[in-house]
C-alpha cells in the first residue's frame, strides 16, 4: 500500500507512490486527460489522470469529482518545473469519500456579506488560507521574540470586575450576583505579573463593544501585551521596534509563498527594520495643520490623520507624548511637561493605522490616587492595583500590539474581518 503523506511533504517522495487525503479545488480536462487541482490544507498539487493508464472506474471517479468533493488520491510524485509548487502527481487511484453538490463559493466573484455568511467555507479559499498561515507565523514569531528576550508568558483573566481602557465600550455580563466585564486589556494584571516575574507578556482575546464599523475595528480581537519592570518609556520604544521588525522579517522569511498568493509587495516588508522614526504629538499636530487638516492641540487623531502622518515613512512611525487628557488614566506624565504623558502609538505604514499603544505607567502612589479621583474610578475595585504602587513600586512600561491589524498590514488586506478566522463585528455574530 502507498505511503500516506501531505502535500507540503511531497518533495520527500519524488518517484514514489503516495496516498493523500484531499479535496478537489478545481478541475480541467481534455477528452483523454484530467487535471485535478487538489488541496489538503498544507498545499496544492495537480493530479494528472491519463485515461489510457487507469481503469474505467478510476477514470469515472475522477470525472464525477466536483468542487470540494473529498477523497483519497493515490499517485506517483514527479518533479514538474512548470508547476508552481514544482511537483505533480500521476494519479493511479481515486477513492471518493463524498461528492459535494452545490458548493456555494464558486471561483466567480461573490459579495462580502455572502462570503461572511459562509465564512466557515470561505476559509478554504487560497487567499484566506494564506492569511491564516501568516497569522500563525506572526504568533510563532511573537513567542520566539519573547522567549529569546527573557520574557515569561502570563495569562490574565478574561472576566474582570473593572475597566482597563475606559468605560465606554465595556462588554457587560453577570457574574452570579455581581457585575462583570469581558476584558478590554490584560494590562493591569500584567503590571502585577511584572512585579512578580520582571518581564512578562500575555497573548489572548480582548473585547470592546465598539459601535464603530470601520475596517480596523473588531469587537473581539487578540492582543499581545508585554509589561516590563525597571524599563522606562525610551527603552520600551526600542523593544517595540525590535519586536515588530522581528515579526515582519520572520514572515518574509517563512511565508514567501503565502505573501505571493496575497500579491503582497514583499520589497515594502523587507524595509521594515529598526529603528523606526518618532514624531511628537505636538509636531504631528503642526504637520497636520500645515497640510490642511482641521485639528487642534488636545484632540485625538482619527484614521485620516494617522494615514496622513504615516505616508511620510516607509516603516512604522511612533507618535509620542500625547496630551494626558486623551489617554488612559495609568500613563505617567512627562516630568518636564506634565500636560503630556510618556506614551507612544505605533502607526503602521500604507494606511493600516495604529498597531501598538504603549506607555510608561504611573508608579507614584499619590499621583495614582489623584488619577482615580479624576477618572471617577472606585478605589475599592482598584485596591489591588494601588497595592502595586504601595509595596515596592518601580518604574515600568508596557504596550499592546493588536494582532489583527498587524496581520492586515503584513498581508496587505484592507479589512480586519479577513485576518481572524471568525470575526466578531458590529451586527455580526454568525457563524
Ligand atoms: O491602544 P490600546 O487601546 O491599548 C491598550 O489596550 C493598552 N492597555 C495596551 C498596553 O499598554 N498593554 O490597544 C492596543 C492595540 C491597538 O494599538 C490596536 O492595534 C489594537 O490593540 N486594537 C484593536 N484591534 C482591533 N479592533 C479593535 N476594536 C481594537 N482596539 C484596539
Ligand atoms: Mg490606542
TrEMBL record:
HAMAP family: Asn_tRNA_synth
Annotated EC: 6.1.1.22
Record localization: Cytoplasm
Gene Ontology MF terms: asparagine-tRNA ligase activity; ATP binding; catalytic activity, acting on a protein; nucleic acid binding; transferase activity
Domain of life: Bacteria
GO annotations of cellular component type: cytoplasm
GO BP of this protein: asparaginyl-tRNA aminoacylation
Subunit-level organization: Homodimer.
This protein's name: Asparagine--tRNA ligase
Main enzyme class: ligase
Keywords: Aminoacyl-tRNA synthetase, ATP-binding, Cytoplasm, Ligase, Nucleotide-binding, Protein biosynthesis
Location of the Aminoacyl-transfer RNA synthetases class-II family profile domain: 132-431
Family statement: Belongs to the class-II aminoacyl-tRNA synthetase family.
Organism of origin: Paenibacillus aquistagni
Catalysed reactions, semicolon-separated: tRNA(Asn) + L-asparagine + ATP = L-asparaginyl-tRNA(Asn) + AMP + diphosphate + H(+)
Location, primary (coarse class): cytoplasm
